[in-house]
Amino acid sequence: MEKTNIKSIANDAVKGGLLFGAISSLYIIFSFLVINSAAGNIISNILWFVKLVGLIWLMKYMFAKYKEKHKDCKAKTLVIYGTFIALLSAAITAIVSYISYEFLFPDAVVQAFDQMYQLLGQQNALDANTQQALVEIEGRASVLQMTGTFIWCLIYGWILSLILAPRVCPPNIFEPEDNLN
Questions:
Q1: Alpha-carbon torsion angle 121, 125, 130, 133, nearest 10
Q2: Mean pLDDT in residue range 90-111
Q3: Which of the pair, 153 or 131, is modelled with greater confidence?
Q4: Helix and strand totals (H; E) in the chain
Q5: What contacts 98, CB < 8 A, 6 or more positions away?
Q6: Using CA atoms, how far apart are residues 107 and 114, in angstroms rounded to an integer?
Q7: pTM score, two decimals?
Q8: How many Cα atoms within 13 Å fall on the side-chain side of residue 65?
Q9: % of the chain at pLDDT higher than 90
């Protein structure tokens, strides 16, 4: 039986991170493909909810599998495992988000900002400085989206790990804490 350490936990988390990243990336691309259809917004929102619930279930399933493989596993180990999954998944999802906004669907950013300009222009809410700031933001939209996606996915995965780990591996007050290397 191998000793559980940070490196072994990270190695075990790679498959999960790739799976979570693939699911989230497919959602991003599919959302761009259906957004201009008649029911695109509704389909996209339904898929977002299914993805959210599915990823929660998948994380719980992966935690149970990890606990089955590592009988001495504690909740703290599962939190670390889930955080590594979230980190890899966040990186993959953020990169796909950047590629989607920058190269695959660059018109989506232009369309979104055009709609915003029209809406704000009708209300006379844009002065010259605000217009200039929005133009700069539009030019950096793909990087901002990538950064926001990375932060969101990492925090979501970490919080999900904190919630699910004690449920999959309830603490036993009579056992010693994890000593991870």
A1: -50
A2: 94
A3: 153
A4: 6, 0
A5: 142, 143, 145, 146
A6: 10
A7: 0.87
A8: 13
A9: 62
